[in-house]
Amino acid sequence: MIEKIQGNTEAFKIKMFYYKRARDAMYDAVSQLVKKGYKDIYIQGHVGWSPREGSINPLNSIKELNRFYYRLTKELSVDFENLKRVLKNNSILFVINSFGFRKCALSEMIKLAKSRGYVVIEDNAHGFFTYYCNDSSDVDITFFP
């Protein structure tokens, strides 16, 4: 039954912060997590570091952060078996929604990550409306352009 007045108003609130660039939001979120003891971040393998303008280059300035990569398939889906092997406990899982699509295995990735004490960050810089197409999102942090 749908009530006329929402009883649990806190259930649907999203805490938002505004930045000029998505990469600034990413840097701020990751640097705060590093201060809380999360020292390892897992990033999908096709994302590289560029000497000019790489989207995750701001993470280079966080000296305490260890970067690791997980594999993708030829279809750019997550190689889930590889992900299960490489993930350590209590780290950051960084998921990038490329080409306007959410990762097919996102819910499985989140379940695995949460079982190992991960914080999950979802990058929606190229998949803005995909965030709202799902019934729910269990990621801890997401950012948009």
Task: Give a written overview of the molecule.
This protein is an alpha/beta fold and 145 residues long. It contains 3 helices and 5 strands, in the order αββαβαββ. It has helices at residues 22-35, 80-86, 106-115; strands at residues 40-44, 66-70, 92-96, 119-123, 141-143. The mean pLDDT is 79.
Features:
145 residues, alpha/beta, 21% helix
Which sequence of SSEs, written as H and E, runs from N to C?
HEEHEHEE
Number of helices in the DSSP assignment: 3
Helix-and-strand structural type:
alpha/beta
Task: Walk across the major sheet and give the strand order.
Answer: 2-1-3-4-5
Q: What kind of sheet is the major sheet?
A: 5 strands, parallel
Helix-strand layout with pairing:
Blueprint: H1 22-35, E1 40-44, E2 66-70, H2 80-86, E3 92-96, H3 106-115, E4 119-123, E5 141-143
Parallel strand pairs: 1-2, 1-3, 3-4, 4-5
Short description:
It is built from three helices and five strands; from the N terminus they run H-E-E-H-E-H-E-E.
